[in-house]
């Protein structure tokens, strides 16, 4: 089974610059790491590779510095990687990003399964996986806990989801896109040997000239949504201790809630 894994390089800390005009994060100015949920997706891919053979190719879109995240992913076991980097595609919303990732996947080759983290640590929209599936015209399962492969049905994959405390088994025909929940497994650690080996593993770079997408379909120009403002929230709430009998506490809480409602 050939598997593609979509990863995102996210800022290590909240100390990130914001473009004053586009209100987008200036990722090139911040130290990055692999989005935590994407590490869980890589682990699911590695387990499936051990069961089925094939290869795992990791994709990301970002500045040239995102190569570090790809090398790290290959140190975790991925076989190859692909970086999509171009100022034309920068600053795009989830729809524009999904278009670029889908086109890069199609250009790179055929994949039986595409995995990615369900949510990113910076945006947390949970939209890109489903949008990539839509662009490719294939099914999608979101926010799964585990994946199971049955040799008796090699053209299908089964995933376990949790919805309001209930567990559901969902079977889907391949190819498909599946987004993986953070913390659903324990990602394997990179070793010194695997880190050294990752330096010589194949890394392909695409620009928009390679993908041949219209410039009004990618980046800021191709984004139907726009961030009109960004700000850092300020704290101002003060804890207030109240005492009394249960009846007195209930009355005081009611008064405080009514007072807070009046301030909204």
TrEMBL record:
Transmembrane segments: none annotated. SUPFAM superfamilies: Adenine nucleotide alpha hydrolases-like. Pfam families: ETF. Residues 22-215 form the Electron transfer flavoprotein alpha/beta-subunit N-terminal domain. GO terms for molecular function: electron transfer activity. This is Electron transfer flavoprotein small subunit. It comes from Sellimonas intestinalis.
